[in-house]
Structure formats: structure tokens, C-alpha cells
Design goal:
The protein is built from nine helices and twelve strands. With 271 residues, it is α/β, with parallel strands linked by helices. The two termini are 25 Å apart.
């Protein structure tokens, strides 16, 4: 892996912190730079995997050779908990909600809103239904909804679904279990991220008996967000990483990978 000397995974942040773990020093015997512990959803795969957000993060790592990074795949809710209490320094790919902003630090624009110009990527959700059902959406609210909407545990899509007039159900261990619940009528519909929907379409039998409503739900930005303690300790570094992530997002390779994995037919589509 091209950035193997800079990027490594640890088994647990708590163990690393307790042992005073450090990354290899920078080349030439220089003192190593700050350590940045980045947590991300383990459903995206290993740190050297092909998901576009991981490719983007590795590009940021490669552009900052003086720094040390740890990328840790964990269940999403655990990432949120670790960062909220400062046991992780950053989370890769978190959308903005007012509740999260109480404990996590987002890039902000001049008006104090989450700065979309410094997002990692933007994506929407697809609304899945049983074939032949009348469930639909106008992009904001649900139409002909009967039963709760299935969402993944800890995902901000739950708050969107509730704002659209739906009850939500996140009581399933993974997407496969959620879709099984939809097939057997225990859910009225299910929300999955666009890249996940594109991946499901490539898996034999994954969407048997199901279809997507035509509209894309909730296009929004996803960010590299930091724990409050890290942002207070390294404010200049945080700004640099946000800016570098925005720069790498617009490189041809990352734009192409993002578009392809989100199911776009146009490589020129902005992420």
C-alpha cells in the first residue's frame, strides 16, 4: 500500500492510549508530528479498502507526511461515542445534526453553518419498498407510508425520516436483516445510502422482491469531524485537514471513484 508507512490500523483506541502507543517517526530521524486517531464505520471495509471515502482519507494522509494517522474501523455508534468523549480524534464521514454538533466540531462558514465547501462528499439516500407497493417520497416527506421506516443504527437518516412523518426502526444488526424485515412486511420501507444501494444492485438476490422509489432522499454533505478536545488542542491542524480534504475531493481520481460508487453514470458529477 502506497501510504503504509503513514497509515495503520489499531485494535482499539483504548488499548493504544493505555499503552502510550506511537507511530513510526518521520523519515530522517525528525520528531514525529501529532497523532490523529480517525474512527470510521466498519461497514466500509479495512483501512486499505476501496471505498471512496477511505481513498480520500488516504490521499489526505499522503499529502501530510509529517503527521501520524490511525484509522480504526468500528461500529458507527461506537465511533460517535468515542469521538464525543475524546477517545477518538476524528470521525470520517459524518453528516451534520444539531445533536452531534454539541460534542463534535464541524467546519463552519461565515454564517456559522456547516461549511459545504469543505465537506468530504455529498450523498443521498434511496427509499426501498416491496415491489408493487405505493410508498413514495417527494424528496422530503413520505407518501402512502404504512409501517415504520428502517434505518441503520446511529445514522442521521433516522432524524430525517421522523421529520418526514415516519416512525423509525433501527433494531437490526445489519442491512441484510433490515431488508429481510422489509420483505416480510415488518417495515413500510427502508433507507439506504446511495453507494450502498449501488452495491446491493450488484449482489445477486440482495434486492429480490424489492425496488427503489424514483426520488433520491436527503442529498447532504458528509464531513471529517473532530472531537472538541482535539479541535481545541490542534485548531490550526484541524483547519489544514479540512482544507486538504476539500482539495483532494476535487482531484480527478477521487471524483471518478465517488461518482462510480454512488451509482452515477457520469464521471464528471461532483461528489
Amino acid at each position: 500500500m502506497r501510504v503504509a508507512l503513514r497509515l495503520f490500523a489499531v485494535l482499539a483506541f483504548g488499548l493504544a492510549a493505555a499503552a502510550g502507543a506511537t507511530a513510526p517517526a518521520t523519515s530522517g530521524g525528525a520528531m514525529p508530528g501529532p497523532l490523529v486517531r480517525v474512527c470510521y464505520n466498519d461497514q466500509l471495509g479495512p483501512p486499505d479498502g476501496g471505498h471512496f471515502s477511505l481513498q480520500l482519507m488516504r490521499a489526505v494522509v499522503a499529502a501530510k507526511p509529517a503527521l501520524r494517522f490511525e484509522l480504526q474501523p468500528l461500529p458507527w455508534v461506537r465511533c460517535l461515542i468515542l469521538a464525543s468523549r475524546g477517545d477518538a480524534d476524528a470521525i470520517l464521514g459524518a453528516s451534520f445534526t444539531p445533536e452531534r454538533a454539541l460534542d463534535l466540531v464541524y467546519p463552519r462558514d461565515a454564517q456559522g453553518r456547516a461549511d459545504e465547501s469543505r465537506r468530504l462528499f455529498a450523498q443521498g439516500y434511496r427509499l426501498l419498498r416491496r415491489q408493487g407497493d405505493a410508498l413514495d417520497t417527494d424528496g422530503q416527506r413520505f407518501i402512502n407510508l404504512v409501517g415504520p421506516i428502517g434505518v441503520e443504527r446511529g445514522h442521521s437518516s433516522a432524524s430525517f425520516a421522523r421529520a418526514g412523518g415516519a416512525d423509525t426502526d433501527d433494531n437490526h444488526p445489519d442491512v441484510t436483516a433490515m431488508l429481510a424485515k422489509l420483505r416480510n412486511g415488518r417495515l413500510g420501507g427502508a433507507m439506504v445510502a446511495e453507494p450502498q444501494y449501488a452495491s446491493l444492485r450488484q449482489q445477486a438476490g440482495a434486492l429480490d422482491g424489492l425496488e427503489a422509489a424514483p426520488s433520491v432522499l436527503q442529498p447532504r454533505g458528509y464531513f471529517l469531524v473532530f472531537s472538541a478536545s482535539f479541535a481545541q488542542r490542534e485548531p490550526t491542524l484541524v483547519e489544514q485537514l479540512w482544507n486538504e480534504a476539500a482539495r483532494q475531493r476535487e482531484t480527478p481520481h477521487i471524483r471518478r471513484e465517488t461518482a462510480l460508487q454512488q451509482g452515477s453514470n457520469s464521471e464528471g458529477d461532483r461528489p
